[in-house]
Specification:
The complex is a heterodimer of chains A (about 260) and B (about 160). Chain A is mostly helical and about 260 residues long. Chain A contains ten helices and no strands. Helices cover about 65% and strands about 0% of the residues of chain A. Chain B folds into two domains: about 70 residues, Fe-S cluster assembly (FSCA) (GMP Synthetase, Chain A, domain 3); about 55 residues, no CATH class. Classes of the chains: A mainly alpha (about 260), B alpha/beta (about 160).
């Protein structure tokens, strides 16, 4: 068994800081897309569910950014509200417009599966503060997975229209999901010493779980595997307007002390 | 005002009167959120753990802890939060479980060890104790609850998630 550590080399610190920002950015942007359904979801219960899920994801972003701050990163609110689209490092998957209900639920399912498996692996991080964050967040993530797995099933096995919609969403989103498993610069070194989970192992488990659910159980057709494409500093045209809306209140009241 | 020696017990007692902001029939000590109390001369340090990481009541809870200790005449109070070990509904004490039930909220089932599972835990109706219940929404009005209806007594109710 590998011993846990609380000390990092300067290079490890910089890489981990970047990785924590990447993780937080995915959560923040997806949470915003989830929040866009507030007041618009098909039924009240689902409106509440998505708001709950979004709130949990923001909580996870808060955990990551608080840990990043302890490693020399900026204040979490600064990181969230005062960086523009050139500085955000979220995957393109999470910034795509919310689309229809099938796209929203399927994206959340693909993401939750990845997040739950990554967190589960991160609970064994040799860097104790990250293992603690992961142990906290993974307990919440299981509720998201239960919910979105059920929705994927309901839509896939529902009417011909719902099946068509979720298959269309899967065809659109599948290529984007590959980016979640693209390591950042220097990540291999942290994986080598057990600080970060091995993304390729997480990818294999993800692919297995997603295939068993979406294909074997729900009868959907998985598209061919895609390349991750450009790095996380490359975005679609959809990120800038999202940030404009998300950050407007913070930027209108830069001196606010109390929220 | 009489000065009594400041003991951890006195602090714990004061904290046991701080209600959970979202479920006022239980206190933060009932919920197992207070993890440690340390008294060093005239200064008091309280460590608590969040229930859910995105819980919007966290700053309210922190302020309430500070106030409860200040009300004992302590000027020097610090409140820290910790993530380890992560909070579990298994820490909710028996008395609080009964008060939750009376309040109409099904207390949580034992959390178990499987962290990633697609099945949901069994739940009992807080009014008629039937297990013939259906979940109507897997999320509820707060992060810690979900919605059910009882098929025996026909009442809708909230149930605690097992975490």
């Amino acid at each position: 068994m590998t011993a846990t550590t609380t000390t990092l080399t300067p290079t490890q610190t910089q890489t981990l800081l970047l990785k924590l920002t990447v993780l937080a950015d995915d959560e923040i942007i997806l949470a915003h897309r989830g929040g866009e359904w507030t007041g618009h979801a098909p039924i009240l219960e689902e409106d509440i569910a998505l708001a709950n899920i979004a709130q949990d994801e923001l909580g996870h972003a808060g955990l990551y950014l608080t840990l990043a701050q302890s490693l020399g990163g900026s204040d979490p609110d600064r990181v969230a509200f005062w960086r523009g689209p050139d500085d955000y490092l979220n995957a393109r998957l999470v910034e795509l417009p919310k689309g229809d209900w099938a796209l929203t639920m399927l994206r959340q399912f693909l993401y939750d599966t990845y997040e739950a498996l990554w967190l589960e692996a991160a609970t064994r991080s040799t860097y104790a503060p990250l293992a603690e964050v992961a142990a906290k967040a993974v307990r919440e993530e299981k509720f998201h997975l239960q919910h979105t797995a059920l929705w994927a099933e309901r839509l896939a096995l529902g009417t011909s229209e719902s099946t068509r919609r979720i298959q269309t969403a899967l065809d659109e989103l599948w290529p984007y999901a590959a980016q979640l498993f693209q390591p950042i610069d220097g990540e291999a070194e942290l994986t080598g010493v057990g600080i970060l989970p091995d993304l390729s192992a997480v990818h294999a488990r993800w692919h297995d779980l997603v295939t068993r659910h979406l294909h074997d159980k729900c009868g959907l057709i998985l598209p061919a595997n895609a390349e991750a494409g450009a790095g996380r500093d490359t975005h679609t045209e959809h990120l800038a307007p999202l940030l404009l809306e998300m950050q407007s209140v913070a930027r209108d009241y830069p001196d606010a002390q109390d929220w | 005002m009489t000065t009594q020696p400041l003991t951890p017990d006195a602090i714990w007692h004061a904290l046991s009167t701080v209600p959970d902001p979202e479920i006022p029939v239980v206190s933060i000590t009932d919920m197992g959120m207070v993890r440690d109390v340390a008294v060093d001369g005239g200064s008091v340090s309280v460590t608590f753990t969040p229930t859910f990481s995105g819980c919007p009541a966290l700053h309210v809870i922190k302020a309430s802890i500070e106030q409860a200790v200040r009300d004992l005449g302590v000027a020097d109070v610090s409140v820290q939060s910790t993530l380890t070990p992560p909070w579990t509904t298994d820490w909710i004490n028996e008395g609080a479980r009964e008060r939750l039930r009376e309040y109409g909220i099904a207390p949580p089932a034992p959390a178990g060890h499987g962290l990633i599972q697609l099945d949901v835990e069994p739940t009992r109706c807080p009014r008629c104790a039937s297990m013939n219940v259906r979940m109507t929404a897997s999320f509820g009005p707060t992060l810690c609850k979900r919605m059910y209806v009882c098929d025996s007594c026909r009442e809708p109710f909230e149930g605690f998630k097992s975490v």
